[in-house]
Specification:
The complex is a heterodimer. Chain A has a six-stranded mixed sheet with strand order 10-11-12-9-3-13. Chain A has a six-stranded antiparallel beta barrel with strand order 14-17-16-15-18-19. Chain A is built from eight helices and 19 strands. Chain A folds into three domains: 134 residues, Gyrase A, domain 2, CATH 3.30.1360; 86 residues, Aminomethyltransferase beta-barrel domains (Alpha-Beta Plaits), CATH 3.30.70.1400; 84 residues, Aminomethyltransferase beta-barrel domains (Elongation Factor Tu (Ef-tu), domain 3, Beta Barrel). The mean pLDDT of chain A is 95. Chain A is globular and about 60 Å long. Chain A is an alpha+beta fold. By secondary structure, chain B is α+β, with helices and mostly antiparallel strands. Chain B has four helices and nine strands. In chain B, the strands form two sheets. Chain B has a six-stranded antiparallel sheet. In chain B, strands 4-6-7 form a three-stranded antiparallel sheet. In chain B, a hairpin with a 2-residue loop joins strand 2 and strand 3. The two termini of chain B are 15 Å apart. Classes of the chains: A alpha+beta, B alpha+beta. The interface between A and B is medium-sized, with 20 and 21 residues.
C-alpha cells in the first residue's frame, strides 16, 4: 500500500481534471494515471455496462504515418491488410518482429489515401517508433510523426456513449459507424473521433487538440458520463476477452498462441513477420490462451499456475472479479489439449487449489454487439 | 479522509485493535480500505483459532489485488464478523465500525504497548506509507 508519488512520471493533459475529480493516481507505464475515482471500480464498471463511462487514454501513443507509401509501409509492419483498408476504416492487429514475437498490439486507422493513424500502448510507444522507424528507412515517402502530445484521447464507452456524444456534436457522432473514424465538431472545435474502444461496449475514442481536452472532459462530466480509471478499464477489457500487452502477451509470445490468429493477414507483400507467422501457424503452438471461471471465491491472478489432475499445464496471465458476471474470471496460456471449453482445471491461488472451468472468450458480450 | 478514532491502537500494516476488557476488536483502517478499493473477498481466521501479533491472520482481496492481513495482537479468536464476510463492502463503508473483522481474547495484554496511537498512525499515513 504505497502511494508515494514519483516526480519523474509523465502527466496527461487531463492530470488536473483527475485530481479535481478525486482520482487515486498510480504509476502506469511511465505515466501518473487515475486507477479509480471516489465511487470505486465496481461502480465505474457498472456505468460502462449500463450507462457510460469515460477514460483518459491520452497516455497511449498516437502516431501518424503520412506519405504516398504510408499504407503500403504499414502493411509491412502491421498484421492487418492496411493497403486494403478504405479511408475511414480501422483494424485491430499486432506488430510483430521477424520471429513473430509481439512487439505491441495496436489499432490502425486509415484517415486518407496517404495518411494513417496508429494507436499503440503507452509503454510500447518508443519500441514501436524504433521498430517502424527502422523498417521505414527502406521505403520512400513515409513520414512517421508522434502526435501524442498534440492530441489528447478520451474513451467514452457504454450504451449511453453514442447518444450523449450525438447531443454535443449536433448528431455528428452516430454518422460514424462502428470501427470507423471521422471528425466531429464539439464546442466549436473539430476533432478526430474513432468508434472503437477497449471495453466491449459501443462508444468512441475522441482525440481533441490538447488545449481542448479539459473543456471536453468537463462537458462530458456535465452530461453525466462517469469518470473511470485504469482499474475499471482492466476489468472491462478482461470481461470482453481483450488482451493486454505486457501482461497477457509480450515479445516472447506469438499471435497464434495469443489467440489472435483472426487478426493476421499474412498474404500482404513484404510483411516482415509473414514467413515466421506462416511457419508458426502450420506447426501449431503447444499452448494457447484460454479463458476460465473459478469457483470457491478465488480470483486468479497473474503468474499463478494452472494444473490439471495435479500436473502443471499452464499459467494465468490476467484475472479479476467480474462485477458484470458476478464471478471470478481469468485467462492464461494452457496446453492446447486443456483449452477446450468445459475442461476442468485447477488454479494454484496462493497455495489453495481453486476449481476452474475453461469457458469461451469473451466472458461478456454487449447486447449491442 | 476519515479521522482515525483515538479509542484504539494501530499497526503499520493498517490494522486497528480496540481493547474492551479481556477482548479486542480488530479491523482495518480507512486508509487501508481506501488504498485497496472495492473489497470483494475476506479470508478471516476461524472462531477458536489463535492469532499471533504481527503474523498473518488472513487476506483481504479487492478487485485490483490481494493483501495479507496481520493481527495487531495475540490471542484466541472468539468472534468474527459474518456480515463482513458475506458483504465485504461494509469494510469499505465503515472500516472503523460495522466493518470490523474479528474479536480476539488477548493472551498477552501488554502487547498493546507495541501499537501506535491514532496520532502516530495518522502521521505515518500522511507521510505516504
Amino acid at each position: 500500500m504505497n502511494i508515494e508519488q514519483t516526480p519523474s512520471l509523465k502527466r496527461t493533459q487531463l492530470y488536473h481534471a483527475h485530481l479535481k475529480a478525486g482520482a487515486k493516481m498510480v504509476p502506469f507505464a511511465g505515466w501518473e494515471m487515475p486507477v479509480s475515482y471516489p465511487r470505486g471500480i465496481i461502480s465505474e464498471v457498472k456505468s460502462v455496462r449500463h450507462a457510460a463511462g469515460m477514460f483518459d487514454v491520452s497516455h497511449m501513443g498516437r502516431l501518424t504515418v503520412k506519405g504516398r507509401n504510408a499504407a503500403q509501409f504499414l502493411g509491412t509492419v502491421c498484421s492487418a491488410d492496411v493497403p486494403g483498408l478504405a479511408p475511414g476504416r480501422s483494424k485491430y492487429h499486432v506488430i510483430c518482429n521477424e520471429q513473430g514475437g509481439i512487439i505491441d498490439d495496436a489499432v490502425v486507422y486509415r484517415l486518407t489515401e496517404d495518411e494513417c493513424l496508429l494507436v499503440v500502448n503507452a509503454g510500447n510507444k518508443e519500441g514501436v517508433l524504433g521498430w517502424t522507424g527502422r523498417q521505414a528507412r527502406s521505403m520512400d515517402a513515409v513520414e512517421i510523426t508522434d502526435l501524442s502530445g498534440d492530441l489528447a484521447m478520451i474513451a467514452v464507452q457504454g450504451p449511453q456513449a453514442v447518444p450523449t456524444l450525438d447531443r454535443i456534436s449536433a448528431g455528428g457522432a452516430s454518422k460514424i459507424r462502428p470501427f470507423r473514424i471521422g471528425e466531429v465538431a464539439i464546442q466549436g472545435a473539430r476533432m478526430l473521433a474513432a468508434r472503437t474502444g477497449y471495453t466491449g461496449e459501443d462508444g468512441f475514442e475522441i482525440m481533441p487538440p490538447s488545449d481542448r481536452a479539459g473543456a471536453l472532459w468537463d462537458l462530458l462530466l456535465r452530461e453525466g458520463i462517469e469518470p473511470s480509471g485504469l482499474g475499471a478499464r482492466d476489468v472491462c477489457r478482461l470481461e470482453a476477452g481483450l488482451m493486454l500487452h505486457g501482461v497477457d502477451m509480450t515479445v516472447e509470445n506469438n499471435p497464434i498462441e495469443a489467440g489472435l490468429e483472426r487478426f493476421l493477414y499474412l498474404d500482404g507483400s513484404g510483411y516482415v513477420a509473414g514467413q515466421a507467422l506462416k511457419r508458426i501457424k502450420s506447426e501449431g503452438t503447444r499452448r494457447i490462451i484460454a479463458g476460465f471461471r473459478t469457483s470457491g471465491r478465488a480470483i486468479p491472478r497473474h503468474g499463478q499456475n494452472v494444473l490439471k489432475d495435479g500436473k502443471p499445464v499452464g499459467i494465468v496471465t490476467s484475472g479479476t472479479h467480474s462485477p458484470t458476471l458476478d464471478s471470478d474470471i481469468g485467462m492464461g496460456y494452457v496446453d492446447r489439449i486443456c483449452a477446450a471449453p468445459g475442461t476442468r482445471l485447477q488454479i494454484d491461488v496462493r497455495g489453495r487449489l481453486a476449481d476452474a472451468e475453461v469457458v469461451p472468450l469473451p466472458f461478456y458480450k454487449s447486447s449491442r454487439g | 479522509m476519515a479521522e482515525n478514532p483515538s479509542d484504539r491502537k494501530y499497526t503499520k500494516e493498517h490494522e486497528w485493535a480496540r481493547v474492551e476488557g479481556p477482548n479486542a476488536t480488530v479491523g482495518i483502517t480507512h486508509f487501508a480500505q481506501d488504498s485497496l478499493g472495492d473489497i470483494v473477498y475476506l479470508n478471516l481466521p476461524e472462531v477458536g483459532s489463535t492469532v499471533k501479533q504481527f503474523a498473518k491472520m488472513g487476506e483481504v482481496e479487492s478487485v485490483k489485488a490481494v493483501n495479507d492481513l496481520y493481527s495487531p495482537i495475540s490471542g484466541k479468536v472468539v468472534d468474527r464478523n459474518e456480515e463482513a464476510l458475506s458483504n465485504p463492502d461494509i469494510v469499505n463503508k465503515e472500516p472503523f465500525g460495522k466493518g470490523w473483522l474479528i474479536k480476539v481474547q488477548l493472551s498477552n495484554p501488554s502487547e498493546v504497548e507495541k501499537l501506535m496511537d491514532a496520532g502516530a498512525y495518522g502521521d505515518m499515513t500522511a507521510s505516504g506509507h
